[in-house]
Amino acid sequence: MQEHTISMKNEKKVKKDEKKVAKTLKKEKKSEKKRGKGFLWFLGISAVSVALLIGCQLFFEEAISGNQVFYENTKINGINVGGMNVAEAENVVLTDMLNSKKDIQIELKNKDKSWTLYGNDFEVTNKIQPVIAQIARHGRKGNFFQNKIKEKEIQENGLNFQISYTNVLGNIDEKLDDIISEVEQESKQASLIFEPDSKEVFKVDKGQNKVLVNRDLLYENIDNALKEDKKISIDIPIIEIENSFDLEALKNSVVKRASFSTSYASSSAKRKENVKRALSNFNGMIIEPGQTISFNETTGPRTEEQGYNNAHIIVNGVYVDGVGGGVCQASTTLYNALILSDIEILSVNHHSLPASYVPLSFDAMVSGSYSDLVFKNNLENPIYIKTYANDKEVGVEIYGQKFEDGIEIKRRAELIKVIPHNGDKIVPDTKGEYSNKILYKGEYERVKYPREGYESKGYLQYYKNGELIEEKEIRHDFYQPQDGIIMEGVESPVEGMTIPASDVKIIKPQKVNAQTLENVKIKLEKINPSEYNP
């Protein structure tokens, strides 16, 4: 009995489970059916999309290939292409444009300059095909994008299109580039103009703005203009970038560093001319940082062919006539202006005799064969040289960057000692050079007086706000003493001849003592008092 009861329960459970399974299977079949329908819908949409894409592609290809025709009254560059396909329209328009190419005239203007390009200057090219194809998308029958109302309006009123002649002009970019290169300019920084002979020695050059051509706009303007006419005039569009600068700062960047002048009031006209000529070679000179200048190279040979005159020069301690006499005063004047400007001197030499126009150790002797004045711009900026001359003096001015505030440079000369001369030397006139004055022994003619020599030093003194802060020795020179020269005749007087006593006084060797040194100092201080002050 018990077993039968258990069997009945199991049987009910099995039937219940079978119903569950049947229900689940039914639900799954329903879902599967829905999924099938969705997949078919997706395939349908995809097929339509692909068809549309293929249709559009075929449509555009058809338009471009020219299988369809333009509306009636459609004009391109004034030519009626109605009823033509793309290829036919292209052929007709291109032929007309090429025939008209010779009439093209493009004038480009910039300020007071102009350039003209003619149609025959250009090579032939054909760039109208894509333009015609683009036009065809708007001006052909059956246009996908035109609705019926719009299409009717087009048919009634027609369509007008313009193709620019730039589409048939080959190498136009190259020709425009040539013109653009003449218009464009790089910026130029503002600078000073050195005019040494003007009242205003320095003037300001404001420099130059950077100028660029707006190429895109230029091409666009030409392209648009050539749609309307074959003869056009275009102002070249430019972009100007202003060059800014500080005018006052530029003016103050260069100052007069020093000036120096020497007197030649007592010189002959020919000597004055030589001094002026030599100095004029330096007038207006601009010397860049690190640049070296030679006086001899700058002035060139001092010859008559170069315009130099005969005047007194010093040769072996004697004043004689020579071409270019006085040039050493030019070099000396320049030298002193340079050292007062604190410019580096690479080479300088003193004369055999002291110069009357400057103190000891501040002269600068030049000779084309063995002595030169050489200097170097040791500053960070250029230096500028101005020279001037009148009937009484010559001068040099040096311009450049400012000294440190309050700085001033002065000179000081120091006489170390007097070097005694050896008196007169009597020389027989064996060559007869003075035979018109002396013939016999005992007859004398003075050629040269003896001169004492000097040892001296030159100093530069640096002052700040009036107070001496440094003294620098720049020269240590020895001006050698000079023997006096007396010529004596060489003939022996005949018997009974009396030779008159000569009025030439023979000078004995010099004796130097403390008083001699003091007397020389006093003499030098009278000539150049300021430079010899202790």
Short description:
The chain is of the alpha+beta class. Helices cover 33% and strands 28% of the residues. The chain has a four-stranded antiparallel β-sheet, covered by helices on one side.
Keyword list:
534 residues, alpha+beta, 4 domains, four-stranded antiparallel β-sheet, three-stranded mixed β-sheet, 27 strands
Description:
By secondary structure, this protein is an alpha+beta fold. It folds into four domains: 1-60; 74-241, no CATH class; 254-402, no CATH class; 412-534, no CATH class. The protein is 33% helix and 28% strand. It has eleven helices and 27 strands. The chain has helices at residues 2-65, 86-100, 129-139, 148-157, 172-183, 215-228, 247-251, 269-280, 295-299, 327-340, 514-527; strands spanning 74-76, 79-80, 105-110, 113-118, 123-124, 159-161, 169-170, 191-194, 202-205, 210-213, 231-235, 238-241, 255-263, 285-287, 292-294, 310-315, 318-323, 344-347, 374-376, 383-389, 393-400, 407-419, 424-428, 444-448, 453-464, 467-479, 484-488. It has a four-stranded antiparallel β-sheet, covered by helices on one side. Strands 2-1-6 form a three-stranded mixed β-sheet. Strands 4-3-11 form a three-stranded mixed β-sheet, covered by helices on one side. Helix 1 crosses helix 3 (129-139). Residues 1-15 and 38-66 have low confidence and may be disordered.
